[in-house]
Amino acid sequence: MDKKRSTLFLKEHPTLQDFQQYVSDLVKERGFQDESISEIFMLLIEEIGEMAKATRKYVGLKTDNNSYKPDLELEIADVFIYFLDICNHFGIDLEQAFRKKEEINKKRVWK
Predict the structure, then answer these.
(1) Which superfamily is assigned to 34-103 in CATH?
(2) pLDDT per residue over 57-79, tens digit each?
């Protein structure tokens, strides 16, 4: 059976909006557009767990030598992908949400 190669392209210096659009396109290309928010959220949590395990390895904490050894940067990328998928699911422009939240945070007193 022939497998279809991806036609997706992320430009050299993408904006956050470019990343969100790319994730939207990859979800459609790979046939995941019908996943519920619950499914996406569980996948995000799973990837966060793998990121935690990779972080333990990265900082030298004890881990089971027989268990899977995840790559920290790849696990962070997986978390980012699912996070953007959730944003897209709810129609959230992450850049605008970030800017809005930072304007609120700038007015807070941080000690």
Answers:
(1) MazG-like (1.10.287.1080)
(2) 888 888 777 777 779 999 999 99
Quote the pTM value.
0.86
| Cα angle: 10, vertex 13, 14; to 5 degrees | 55
- Give the Å distances, CA to CA, from 2 to 5, 28, 33, 78: 9, 19, 22, 26
SS3 helix, strand, coil % of the chain, rounded to 5? 60, 0, 40
Q: Is 108 helix (H, G, I), strand (E, B) or coil?
A: coil
* Residues whose CB is less than 8 angstroms from the CB of residue 85 and which lie 6 or more positions away in sequence, other chains included: 23, 27, 40, 44
- Asked if residue 80 lies in contact with residue 26, where contact means CB atoms within 8 angstroms, the answer is no
